[in-house]
Amino acid sequence: MSALLNPIARLFISILFTVSIRAAVGVSHGACNDTCGTIPVQFPFGTGFGCGHPFFARYVKCSVGTLEFSTVTGIYTVSSIDYPTRTVIVTDPLMSNCSSMQNSGSFSLDRASPFTLTDDNIFVLLGCSTTSPLFDPSVDSCDTGSSSRVCRGLYSCKAVTGIGLPQNAPISTCCVYDSPKGVGYSLDLPKLQCSSYTSIYEFGDEGDPTKWRFGISLQYNDSYYTDACKDCESSGGLCGFAGMEESFACICKDGVNTTTNCLGHGYAWNGGTWEPKIQANMIIGVCVLLWTLLSF
């Protein structure tokens, strides 16, 4: 009987030992992760439904390793998030830049969005009709101060042929759009009679458009970061939501959702941090002891 039991027991212990090792290394927080591709994802953002704050989940999600930002005008790629400054950079795949220009769609932010445009953005409208309302002398829509420098720089790019203009075309069809800032935003290209648009948020080398940084710089509202979320994160969990009411949930690494924190879900206090090792180490110790006893 002992000869039959030992191999079975040893197989069971081997499986338990492997699972314990994986627990010690760490597992994902259920359906939520703290990265999407190469971008760290922190509250109020999340990687999927039930992750992060429910209000932000309507706008930002992780899709096949790409963090995406959605509005009524399209889906844009999140290229970076700076959490200390609460700044998100998004890129429109159809937005023009010095290496690629094509007809663009429109861009908008709804008034209820927790995002606003930063002052770093310089929106430039390209290939506009001479009858565009932008050039109505009674309406001051274009920033004449920076228009010449920025427009000449963009029209010097070879890619301008992609919107039907010759390289170094006259800048009379270009407008540095002096758009209204604040809550909500709408850039309606068909209404403005323009072929394309771009947004520059940083001039790497002011005279070289190939070194300009193209994208839309947004700032998000951080007033949703509550003490309950801080307590959840300090215990090793990720903040999320659950149920029809989208109530707060702390998502633990063992896949369990709680309404408070991840205490008792594979974590223990160790020198000021929560570490997922105590339960795993206890299981490993028992496995080693049983293995030793059954070897005799």
UniProtKB/TrEMBL annotation:
<feature type="signal peptide">
    <location>
        <begin position="1"/>
        <end position="23"/>
    </location>
</feature>
<feature type="domain" description="Wall-associated receptor kinase C-terminal">
    <location>
        <begin position="215"/>
        <end position="255"/>
    </location>
</feature>
<keyword id="KW-0732">Signal</keyword>
<keyword id="KW-0325">Glycoprotein</keyword>
<dbReference type="GO" id="GO:0016020">
    <property type="term" value="C:membrane"/>
</dbReference>
<dbReference type="GO" id="GO:0004674">
    <property type="term" value="F:protein serine/threonine kinase activity"/>
</dbReference>
<keyword id="KW-0812">Transmembrane</keyword>
<keyword id="KW-0472">Membrane</keyword>
<dbReference type="InterPro" id="IPR032872">
    <property type="entry name" value="WAK_assoc_C"/>
</dbReference>
<feature type="domain" description="Wall-associated receptor kinase galacturonan-binding">
    <location>
        <begin position="32"/>
        <end position="92"/>
    </location>
</feature>
<keyword id="KW-1133">Transmembrane helix</keyword>
<dbReference type="Pfam" id="PF14380">
    <property type="entry name" value="WAK_assoc"/>
</dbReference>
<protein>
    <recommendedName>
        <fullName>non-specific serine/threonine protein kinase</fullName>
        <ecNumber>2.7.11.1</ecNumber>
    </recommendedName>
</protein>
<dbReference type="InterPro" id="IPR025287">
    <property type="entry name" value="WAK_GUB"/>
</dbReference>
<dbReference type="GO" id="GO:0030247">
    <property type="term" value="F:polysaccharide binding"/>
</dbReference>
<dbReference type="Pfam" id="PF13947">
    <property type="entry name" value="GUB_WAK_bind"/>
</dbReference>
